[in-house]
Design goal:
- By secondary structure, the chain is mostly helical.
- It has 6 helices and no strands.
- It has one domain: bsu32300-like (Four Helix Bundle (Hemerythrin (Met), subunit A), Up-down Bundle), CATH 1.20.120.580.
- Helix 1 packs antiparallel against helix 6 (125-132), helix 2 (36-63) crosses helix 3 and helix 3 (72-81) packs antiparallel against helix 4.
- The radius of gyration is 15 Å and the shape is globular.
- It starts with a helix and ends in a 5-residue tail after the last helix.
- The relative contact order is 0.17.
């Protein structure tokens, strides 16, 4: 797939999932707790956003004829080496990828209070910004 088309699609998906998280944040802003169904929606939206970002990272590496690692952690480390993401942001990327891994593989040990705090503080927005940013090939 052409990189420009891939980036347009990542931006579209980011807008959809970010809008869902914004709805959850609005509910929280009204002082109402999220229902279990809404909590599941938040987890799913975060998972999709993060997986979308990992996929984009790998596409960017592939488009520039760089080795494409299996690990999302390694993909962002490689992007930082190429100055496509800031080196200082790697700890945030590692944390958000760790959250994705927990959602997928360790779902019985998710602290929803921490997840709610994350979206309430907009700490997911750096992922959205990465997804809507167009990188030249």
């Amino acid at each position: 797939m052409r990189l420009d088309l891939y980036q347009a699609e990542t931006a579209r998906v980011a807008a959809e999932q970010s809008a869902l998280l914004a709805q959850a944040k609005a509910i929280l802003g009204q002082g109402r707790a999220l229902t279990p169904l809404e909590q599941g929606g938040v987890l799913h939206a975060l998972q999709i956003l993060i997986e979308n970002a990992i996929g984009k990272a790998k596409q960017l590496l592939k488009a520039s004829d760089q080795p494409v690692p299996v690990s999302g952690y390694d993909a962002f480390k490689a992007l930082a080496t190429r100055n496509l993401v800031a080196q200082v942001d790697l700890s945030a990327w590692n944390a958000i990828i760790g959250l994705r891994n927990r959602i997928v593989h360790d779902y019985m040990n998710i602290d929803m209070d921490q997840v709610i705090a994350l979206i309430a503080a907009d700490k997911d927005q750096f992922v959205v910004r990465f997804l809507v940013t167009e990188f030249l090939d």
